[in-house]
Design goal:
The complex is a heterodimer of chains A (300) and B (591). Chain A is built from 8 helices and 14 strands. Chain A has 300 residues and is α/β, with parallel strands linked by helices. In chain A, strand 2 and strand 3 form a beta hairpin. The model of chain A has no long low-confidence stretch (mean pLDDT 87). In chain B, 29% of the residues lie in helices and 21% in strands. The chains are: A alpha/beta (300), B alpha/beta (591). At the A-B interface, helix 1, strand 7, strand 8 and helix 7 of A face strand 15 and strand 16 of B.
Chain lengths: 300, 591
């Protein structure tokens, strides 16, 4: 199927969309993210909770929920014996299902207080004020990075979903990690490359509107030069970035158009990937990468 | 106009009495027991007057200003037995407060005993209407004319929370500055709990646009002695810091008045027979006169205690790393200190070359190196404290030159404070930052640009380093025994190994130089961040750059707090930011 025929389906209550977050919760996530004194796990969790909050707000009017999307959060780490722990990142009642609806999200949020920065319009100063924010995902960090098992779990969830929603816009798998896979498999000599075939199988799943889209974001503790939506692997610094490059989907034209409207420059064959991301880069990545699920014109 | 330490002078406290002063003052941490700006100002002023009674005998005036409808009420606010007077000598104050309150001072630690102190009151606010600041400053002008001109310096200490209601006071203030050696100090009170104060800035760019910058323009430069005093207390102040605090909370207000007191303490008493010697050191100041807030377990109240405020100075010294506190197994790094009188020098040497300069895209290495250079220069202007001389040399296609443009053209080394005020131009950008809750906050910012270079064919790195060496030779003649100069070479790394070594030799010929590298190769390369060896570095040319790079100064100190840096780190990064350029210099700064 040519690209212009794909990735066209609007996301609405008849043809529901799907966004599945896959989050690294390995021990190294406790390190500080680059250019900040915050920990990677905290920044990641804030970004995801904020994304979920926006989705709920966008799809709610009064007591009415537009049931447009299924959403899931899978977290992965290992215990101290390197046994993979792949589990649901949502807590409480939401943890029972792999994918939840927006209404279920909305009814099951806990709240906490954070300091939010705003700009004072009269003086142009930046001020902080406390706000109540809903929290669905909490920071956890332990052990190693079993990417292969994690991707396998995603395969199962998305296989099921694509069969039940054959006409929908394909699912987005948003994977955020801070390091290399530590799981050894028989097929790959180098653990860095081991998840590539697993990612390939996830990408082979499809609806009638196209294949599953995988987005990868790598969080950094060092101020290495950042790389957002690269189009060729030539300048990528190392084997991890090249592995993630292979595991990432190319951005479909429609999503690229949305990104350009929002002011981002993207090459035609840009991959949906970010490398050496700091907080700002992570947030830009999420914003652009999931625009098709969040921008008004695409939702009915 | 910069006042040098005059032998005598007069002090005018100019206080805003408009209804804006009725609103609550910002208080970090929020909480109960809120006080209005007027109450805080009055407490601070009365406490200040009380302390002045122990210093030299000098004339003081309190001018309040407000306007109701058409009536402007500006004039002296002395009351009780001092009513009707303009200037009152500080020696008269002790016997003539309007009344004496009893206030409760909290103990130094929570839970300790609180003591009741006598709190004499000379000034009580009477608020209404708006703030006619032009009339207020005109009143000051008239007062000065009436003064005996034998009195030298004039200090006007203006406390306000409003914009002027009767026009821009700029001209009124300029008139005062022209006529007298005057020090006009402005303090604008905060309404926000969590916005930090902007203290003693040297450049209006560091203040929010609008009212803050307007007040900056009518604030005097601080005398050098006060700038040094601020630094001793751990407050960052550049050489050309102004006497302005914007968004001050109670603590900053009290510190502001303390600073003015340090200035007036150097004045001779107007009456010479029983003049007290000017109090040279704070230790002489009796603490029994400290006055406190009544009621409430407000943390801020403790800070009015002189003891506690003075304690901040030693705390600030303890928290900054002294070079001799290094206790790592590596030998102690003996760094000379850095100050405006004994500055450090940093020279950026930028390689303009590209493999293919004519076919380059916007995102080419030369442009990226210029971006890094501008960011580092901005960092230097923010952290330099008037103690760093900066130079920029670029090379390519046979040309080596010192690369400042605009107002700084033809200068080889420029002090960071002068650099701050003279970018080649300023770009308006929209910066996006983490808003703390998982979103992005956009705000407009002005980005200063000092360096913009055209890519070119490769030039001679030996000539470039020779140019840097010559600049530093000249600098060393005026600055002996100072902090070893730093040269940061920004390059894509295409140089021959032999040229690299020759260049390094030439650089070190006339004196020790700390040589660092920031490399952005045109071909793919892993991120390298202050490594300890060249194992992660590809290619002979780049490995040679590692070999000639100096060890990262201050690494043992940095390694204590930062896991990503080893004590044996070399000063080289590849495809990363050179975040540690000023660490050692900042550690060596005289506080």
């Amino acid at each position: 199927m040519a690209d212009y025929e794909q990735y066209n389906q609007a996301i609405d209550s008849i043809n529901r969309g799907c966004v599945l977050f896959l989050l690294d919760q390995s021990g190294s996530m406790v390190e500080q993210i680059t250019n900040s004194s915050e920990r990677k796990c905290d920044q990641l969790v804030k970004a995801i909770n904020r994304w979920l909050e926006n989705i709920v707000i966008q799809n709610t009017s009064g007591d009415d929920y537009k049931d447009r999307m299924d959403i899931g959060v899978i977290i992965y780490r290992t215990d101290l014996d390197a046994v993979p722990i792949i589990s649901n990142g949502l807590t409480g009642a939401l943890a029972e299902k792999d994918l939840v609806t927006i209404q279920e999200l909305s009814s099951n949020a806990e709240f906490e207080t954070l300091q939010k920065k705003i700009v004072d319009e009269d003086t142009g100063e930046i001020m902080e004020m406390p706000v109540q924010v809903p929290v669905w995902v909490k920071p956890v960090f332990e052990g190693g990075t079993p990417m292969c098992s994690a991707l396998h779990k995603c395969y199962e969830i998305l296989d099921n979903w694509t069969q039940q929603n054959p006409n929908s816009f394909p699912p987005l798998l948003v994977h955020i990690t801070d390091g290399e896979n530590t799981e050894e498999t028989d097929d790959s000599p180098d653990p860095v490359d081991a998840p590539i075939p697993y990612a390939d199988s996830v990408r082979s799943l499809a609806t009638n509107d196209g294949n599953v889209l995988i987005l990868n974001c790598h969080l950094s503790a060092l101020p290495g030069d950042q790389c957002l939506f690269p189009s060729n692997a030539e300048f990528l610094p190392d084997s991890l970035s090249r592995a993630l490059f292979q595991m990432s989907s190319t951005i479909p034209d429609k999503m690229r158009d949305l990104a350009i409207e929002a002011g981002f420059e993207l090459a035609h064959d840009a991959k949906m990937m970010a490398y050496n991301a700091d907080t700002e880069c992570l947030l830009n990545f999420l914003d652009v990468g999931t625009k098709v699920a969040t921008v008004r014109s695409e939702l009915r | 106009m910069n006042t040098t330490a005059e032998n005598s002078g007069s002090l005018i406290i100019l206080i805003d009495e408009s209804t804006t002063m009725n609103s609550n003052i910002g208080k970090s941490g929020g909480g109960e027991n809120r006080k209005s700006k007027a109450e805080c100002a009055a407490t601070a002023i009365n406490s200040f007057l009380n302390r002045l009674t122990n210093g030299p005998n000098i004339p003081v005036a309190i001018i309040g200003y407000r306007s109701d409808d058409d009536t402007t009420v500006v004039g002296s606010r002395w009351a009780g037995s001092l009513a009707g007077r303009d200037f009152v000598m500080t020696s008269e104050l002790a016997e003539s407060p309007v009344r004496v309150d009893e206030r409760v001072r909290q103990g130094a630690d929570f839970g300790a005993e609180s003591t009741t102190v006598q709190f004499p009151i000379w000034y009580e606010p009477d608020l209404s209407g708006s703030a006619p600041q032009v009339a207020a400053f005109d009143c000051c002008s008239q007062l000065i004319e009436g003064q005996d001109s034998a009195n030298g310096a004039l200090v006007i200490c203006h406390i306000t929370a409003s914009s002027s209601a009767d026009g821009n006071p700029q001209k009124a203030v300029e008139k005062i500055l022209e006529a007298e050696a005057a020090l006009v100090c402005n303090l604008f009170l905060s309404s926000h709990d969590e916005v930090p104060a902007s203290e003693y800035k040297s450049n209006r760019q560091f203040l929010p646009p609008g009212n803050a910058r307007s007040i900056f323009d009518r604030t005097s430069l601080l005398p050098d002695s006060l700038v040094r005093s601020l630094r001793q207390d751990g407050v960052a102040a550049n050489d050309r810091a102004r006497a302005l605090v914007f968004n001050a909370q109670m603590l900053q207000l009290v510190q502001f008045l303390n600073l003015i007191q340090k200035h007036t303490d150097t004045w001779m008493s107007a009456v010479s027979e029983d003049a007290e010697a000017p109090a040279e050191s704070l230790d002489e100041r009796p603490t029994a006169d400290s006055t406190e807030e009544s009621t409430g377990a407000d943390a801020d109240d403790e800070l009015l205690d002189d003891d506690l405020i003075m304690e901040e100075a030693p705390e600030a010294e303890e928290s900054s790393d002294s070079p001799t506190d290094d206790d790592s197994p590596v030998s102690v790094e003996d760094l000379p200190s850095v100050s405006p009188e004994q500055p450090a020098a940093v020279v950026l040497v930028i390689d303009r070359s590209l493999e293919n300069p004519s076919a380059s895209q916007m995102n080419n290495v030369c442009n990226r190196l210029c971006d890094e250079a501008n960011e580092l220069l901005e960092q230097i202007t923010n952290e330099g404290r008037g103690s760093i001389d900066v130079g920029v040399v670029s090379y390519g296609a046979g040309e080596v030159c010192s690369t400042f443009e605009g107002p700084l053209a033809d200068r080889s080394l420029v002090r960071d404070s002068e650099l701050a005020e003279n970018p080649s131009h300023v770009e308006d950008i929209v910066e996006k930052i983490d808003d703390g809750t998982g979103g992005l906050l956009e705000f407009s910012k002005q980005k200063p640009i000092w360096v913009e270079l055209e890519p070119s064919e490769p030039g001679s790195v030996v000539d470039a380093f020779a140019c840097a060496a010559d600049i530093l030779d000249e600098w060393r003649q005026q600055n002996n025994d100072s902090f070893t100069p730093i040269v940061l070479h920004l390059t894509r790394g295409g140089t021959e190994t032999s040229d690299v070594r020759d260049a390094a030799t030439r650089l070190q010929e006339s004196g020790a130089v700390t040589l660092y590298h920031l490399v952005k190769p045109e071909l793919a390369h892993a991120n390298v961040f202050f490594p300890t060896d060249s194992d992660g570095i590809d290619g002979e040319g780049l490995k040679a750059l590692f070999d000639i790079s100096s060890p990262l100064q201050g690494a043992s100190q940095i390694a204590v707090e930062n896991d990503t840096i080893s004590p044996d780190a070399r000063g080289i990064v590849i495809n990363s930011k050179f975040t540690m350029l000023l660490q050692a210099i900042s550690q060596a700064m005289v506080d």
